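Predict structure. Chain length: 130.
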Amino acid sequence: MLHAPISEKEEQIAQKIIDSAFTVHSTLGPGLLENIYEVCLCYELTKRGLPNRRQVVLPIQYDGISFDEGLRLDVLVDELVICELKAVEIMHPVFTAQLLTQLKLTHKRLGFLINFNVPLIKNGIKRIVL
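Prediction complete.
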């Protein structure tokens, strides 16, 4: 099933997310903890004029009940794009599955899985569109 392309606004946000990730990685390099990259990425996004929220907790709906212990999004950018951040040696398929599930449950279309623990950040960015 083919989906409509994402909006121009989402594409502009996506470019700023990638630019921000490149800036953070080129400044700090690999080998730090995930929360350090998260703080710095959000700072770079803010410098680029993008509103963002860290560690966003969203309730989960299950069997007609809302549970507060729901999703925790690493970074939500402009209420449109989810960024799942990692600082790991090996990217496991479950990380992609996690982001896909977050996108489905939040009804968002665009997400980025960003692993900062790589020599070249371009190899650590995975874009996912629903």
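Summary: Strands lie at 52-62, 65-77, 81-86, 110-115, 125-129.
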